[in-house]
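To: structure subgroup
Subject: Chain for Friday's discussion

All,

I'm putting the inputs and outputs inline so they're searchable in the archive.
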Amino acid sequence: MNTEIIVFAGISGFLFMAALLAFVYFRGLSLMQYLQQEEYDNERFLKWLFRARAFDKKASLITLLAFIVWSYFGDLNPPVINLGFYGLLLTALVVGIKTSLPKKNSAKIPLVTTPRVQRILYVYLLLMGFYFASLLLSFAEGNIMALMMAFVVFFQWPPFFLAASNFVLKPVEEFINRRYLKSAREKMNDLNPIIIAIAGSYGKTSIKNILSHILSSMAPTLATPASVNTEMGIVRIIRENLTDKYRYFVVEMGAYGAGSIKRLCQLTPPQLGIISSVGVAHMERFKS
C-alpha cells in the first residue's frame, strides 16, 4: 500500500512539475511575441498588457478555489480534499498552458526566435524558478495564506518577469546592437543598392510585395520578408541576405513612436519612398 502511495505521489509530482514548466515556458513565449512586436520597449509592452488586459484570469480563479477548498474543508476528509486540491492546481496549470498556446491571428507579427529572444527567455525562466522556490519554502513552513496568495500571484508574474529580464539584459543588448548596426551600415555603404522605403499605418506589406514583384522583372530585387519593419529586423536582413547581386532593396518601415522612421532612414537612406496611409493606430501613438 505504501509503495502504491509513493508511486502515485511520484507520478503526480512529475505531472505537476511538467505542467508547471510548460505553463511558464508557453506563457513566456506568448508574451515574448508582443514584447518583440513592441521593439523590446518595456513601457510600450506594459501599456499593451494593461490596455489588452492580457493577465491570466482562469488559472488564477481555479487556484484561488483550490486554496479556499483546502483551507475551509481540509479537515473533513483530508485524503479526498488533498486529492481535489492538487487536482485543481494541476487543472489551473493545464488551463494556463491552453490559454498561452499560440493562436491563429493572435498578433500581427509572428515571433521570430532570435538570439535576443532566447537570452530574455533564459533569464525569465530563471526568475520564475526562483519565485517558485520561494513558494516551496512557504509550503514547507506551513504558511497557507502566504502560499495561497503567492501561488495566485504566480500566474500574474510572467509579463513582469519578462519585462524585468529585458531590462536586466538591456546593456548587453545595446552593446550587441551597436556592433550589428555598424556592420550593417558598412555593408550598405559598400553595396549601395537603390532603396525604396514603404511606411504607413496599414497596407505596407501588400505594397512591398507588389512592388518587389514588379521590380524583380527589371533587376534582382531584395525585399524585407513578411512584416519585418523594425531597426534590428532590417539590420538582420542586411547582414544575412543583402548581396551585391541585388540592384533594388525594398524596405518596409514601422513607426512605433517619434523618431522611428528617422532611425530607419539613417540605416537605409531611401532614394524613393511610399506612404501607404496614416491611420488610427499612428494617431494614437503620435497624438497628433
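Points worth raising on Friday:
The mean pLDDT is 85.
The first helix runs from residue 2 to 37.

D.
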